[in-house]
Amino acid sequence: MPITEELRQGPGERGASEVRTLSELNALISRADPMLTAPTHPVLGEGPVGAELALVGEQPGHQEDLQGRPFVGPAGQLLDRALAEAGIERDRTYLTNAVKHFKFEERGKRRIHKKPTAGEVRHYRWWLRRELELVHPRVVVALGATAVLAITGDPRPIGQFRGPAELDGHRGYITVHPAYLLRLPDREERHRAFQEFVSDLKRAHSLSQHVKR
Ligand code: URA
């Protein structure tokens, strides 16, 4: 489907103000035409309202698109290991993405992840903002630069801003995306980066224990 100007305005602009609950919000986006070509499902956020942590990724990948759930592919498995090592229960954590559909390029039979453009991130931004308002987590964790852009509207390099942050009115924490760790070629470097990621998750979790509602 071509990316039309109408879609560029964002599906939510046509009904976001009436949305009062997360399930109404999810129903709205599920009915909307995807901005991206040919994904299988919109991948909705998953986890409890009022969670201690809400983790925001970039976009669903191949596995997430097939299963209709966030963080179930290779990056999700690495995230699961990091959460377990940080002593955080996945089931008590809200997981979502900046962009709700898988963007890919077909190469033979394979579907290769393509990074969303800033315009595509903007297209989905209304939804993420409303979603985070409704989920009302204690701490929002931005996993990578696309998540930071989607939550705040500002591009902020992770190397410079990694750590605690105010994110669009939420107590927040900025860290790397787990897929970045998967791409590191050197084993030792990957191990060190994984431990740093686990430390970030622990610090975000400990922040969440001090937030008053
Ligand atoms: N990467 C993401 O950013 N989100 C997912 O759900 C899976 C991989």
Highlighted features:
213 residues; alpha/beta; Uracil-DNA Glycosylase, subunit E; 5-stranded mixed sheet; globular; binds uracil
Your description of this structure?
The protein is of the alpha/beta class. The protein has one domain: Uracil-DNA glycosylase-like domain (Uracil-DNA Glycosylase, subunit E). Helix content is 43%, strand content 15%. It has nine helices and seven strands; from the N terminus they run ααβααβββαβααββαα. It has helices at residues 5-8, 22-31, 62-67, 74-86, 118-135, 145-152, 158-161, 178-183, 187-208, and strands spanning 53-57, 94-97, 104-107, 110-113, 139-143, 163-167, 170-175. The strands form two sheets. It has a five-stranded mixed sheet, sandwiched between helices. A hairpin with a 2-residue loop joins strand 3 and strand 4. Helix 4 (74-86) crosses helix 9 and helix 5 packs across helix 6 (145-152). The termini are far apart. Uracil binds at residues 57-61, 64, 70-71, 73, 75-76, 97, 179.
Summarize the structure.
The protein has 213 residues and is α/β, with parallel strands linked by helices. It has helices spanning 5-8, 22-31, 62-67, 74-86, 118-135, 145-152, 158-161, 178-183, 187-208; strands spanning 53-57, 94-97, 104-107, 110-113, 139-143, 163-167, 170-175.
